[in-house]
Amino acid sequence: MELAWYALLGLFFAAYLVLGGYDYGVGLLLARRAGAGTGRAALTAVGPFFLGNEVWLVATVGILFGAFPTLEGELLAGFYPVVLGALAGVVLVTAGVQLRGRAGGEATRAGWDRIVVVGGVLAALGWGALLGGLLQGVPLTADGHVAGVGHVVTPFVAATGLTLLALVAVHGATFLTLRLPPADAPALARLARGLVPAALTAVAATTVLGLLSDRVRAAVARPALAVLLPLVVVAALLVARAALRRGRAGVAFAATATALALPAPLVGAALWPRILVATGDPAASLTVAGAAASRPTLALLGWLVLPLLPALLGFQAMCWWVFRGRIDGRAPVYW
Amino acid sequence: MDPLLLARLQFATTTSIHFLFVVVTLGLVTLLVGLQTAGYLTGKPVYERLTRFWGQLYVINYVLGIATGIVMEFQFGLNWSGLSRYVGNVFGAPLAIETLVAFFLESTFLGMWIFGWHRLRRGVHLALLWGVALTAYASAFWIMVANAWLQHPVGYEVRDGVAHLTDFGALVTNPTFGFAFGHVVSASLVTGGLLMAAVSAWHLLRRTPDFLLFRTSLRLGLVTAALAVSALQGFGFAQFGPVGQLQPTKFGGGPGREAMVADWTARFGPGDWAPPVLSSVGLGFMILIGFALGCVWLLLPLLWRDWIIRLRFPLWLLLLGLPLPFVAVLLGWIAREVGRQPWVAYGLLPTAQAVSPVSPALMLASLIGFGLLLGALAVTNGTLLARHAARGALDPALGRPPAPDTDAHHQPVFA
Hints:
heterodimer, A: mainly alpha, about 75% helix, B: mainly alpha, two-stranded antiparallel ribbon, 16 helices
C-alpha cells in the first residue's frame, strides 16, 4: 500500500514538473524583450492551463502530508532554504501572470515581466535542487531530524538546479512552438533548438558531478536507474531537437515533457526503499515505509481519493481538449 | 530570537492574510452562481454582464488568494514539522482530501470557466461555475474539519507517542466543527454580500450610467448579507456551548479551566497552560461588529421603491461599513486560534513541540520575506479590486467576445 501511494506521489510531482514546467519556461522566456511569443501572446498560450497546472503541486504536497506525514515534515524543514526559494518562485509567477495584464503602462508591465522571470528561475532552481539534494542524502540526527541545512550547499545540488532550469526553458520554448500561430513557430523552434545544447551541457555536468560525489554514490541504492536518468534525458533532448528541426512540434513537446517527467520517478526509484538517506550511517535512513502514515489513514485516503482519480484526470484532460490547438486571433485573452 | 515565536508569528500572518482572500472567494462565488444561473434561465443580458463584472473581481481575488494558500500549505512542513511527525496520521488526512478532492478540481474548473466564455456551450459553462462553487465549499469543509481537530482532537489513539487514526467519522462529527463551519460560511456570505452592495452603492452614488445593473447587484448583495448575518450570529453564539465545555481555557476562567490546567500539569508537568490574556479581547469587538452588521436588516425595507438609492445616505453607510466584516473575521479567527494556545492540538501536542528544528535566522528570513510578499499581495489585491470595481461593467476583460476571425485556417495540434 505504501508503494501505491509512493507511486502516486511520484506521478503527481512528475505531472507538476511537466505542466508547471512549461508555465515557468514560458515565464522565463518573457526575459526576451521582443520577438515571437513574448508578452501577451505567451500568457495567452498558457492561459487556460495555468490554474490547472499549479494544482498538481498543491496535490503533491497534499499527498505528501496525508500519506507520508513524517517525510513531509522532515523534507520541507530539512531543505528549508531550497523549498523557500521554490515557493517564493511559485508565488511570484502566480501573482505576476495575473497582475501583468492588469497593470497600467508599458513600464509597469515590463516590471511584472521581470517578476515572472525571477519567479520562474527560483521555482525551477528550487525543485531541481530538491531532487539533487534527495539524491545526495542528508545528515540525520539521532532522533531522525535533518541536521541543519548546510548539507544542500554542494556543486551537485547547484548543477541539478541549473539542469532543471535549462530543461524548463527548452520545454517552455517547445510549448510555445506548439501553441502560437503557425507564423511564429519557426522562430520559436529555432529558439528552443538553441537552448538544447545548454540543457545537454547542464545534464552532462550534473552527471559528472554526481559520479564524482561520494555522497551521491553512497546514497543511491540502484546505480543503474540513476545512470539511466541522464541518458534518457539526453535522448529526449536529442529527439526534441531533431523534431523541432523537422517542424514536428507535437513530437518535440512530447520529448521535452518526457525529459521533465522522468527525474522525479527515477530519483525515487533509485533511492528506493529509502527516501531520506542518512549520510554516514545509511541504516539510520528514513525509508518510504517508515515515512508513510499508518494503515487506517492510508486505507481511508485510498477509499476516498482513488475512486475520484479518474475524475481528476478526466477534467484535466477535458481542459486540454477544449483548449487544444494553436492560439489565433479568436483565442480568449484574459491574463 | 525564539524560533517558536517566529514560527507562530508567521503562521498568524499567513493565515490572516489567506483568510481575507478566502472569505471574499467563498462569498462571491456563491453570488456568481446565482447570477449566472439567473442569466441562463431568464436569458436576460443584464445577468451576463453582472456575471462578467463580478466574475472579474472574483478571479483577481482567487488567483492572488491561491498564492497565499500555497504558502499556507507548505508552512506546515516548513515550520511545524512536529505537527506532521506526531499527529500527521490524523491531521494530514483531511488536508490531503481537501487538496485532491476539492482544490484540485476547483482550480481546474475555474481555468476552464475563465477561458471558456464563447467557446463552451452555455450549459457546460454554467456547470463549471457550479463545480467551482461546490468544490470551494468542499474545500472549506475539509479545512474546517482539520482545524476542528486541532481544537478538539478526536478519533485517534496514541501509540509510541504518535497519534493514529481510529475513527474518521469522529472527525466529521467533531462538536467543534459543525457550527464553526456554518459560522465561516455565513461570514463569507456576509462579506461577499456586503462587498457587492458597497461597490454597487459606490456606482449608484457616482451615478454611473449602469443604474439598472448596479441596482440589481445592490439588492442581491444586501439581501444575501442580511440573511447570512442572522445565520452568522446564530452559528457564532451556538459555539459558546461546545467550546466552553471542550476548551474551558479558551474564553476566561471558571472551575472548568482550573480543573483542565490541573489535569495538564499532572500529565505534562508544570507550565503556563493558559492562553495569552489578549486572546479573547478581540472576541468582544467581533461580537459588536456582528451586531452592527445585523443592522443591514434595517436597510431592507428601504429597497421598496428604491428609497435606499433615493435617500443616498444608506449607500454611504454601506460603503463605510465595508471594512467591518474583514476586521471581524480576523478578530474571530484570532480568538479561535490564539485561544487554543499553548497547544497546537488541544490537550495533545504542545505548540513548542511542534515547531521545526530550524535555525532562528532562517525562520526570521522566511517570516520577513513571506510577510512582505503576502502583505504586498493583499495590498495589491485591494487596489486591483478597487480599480476594477471602479472601472464599471462596460467591458470587463473576463468573457470579452473574441475579435472577428481573420484567419479561418485552424490547425489542430495533434493531427
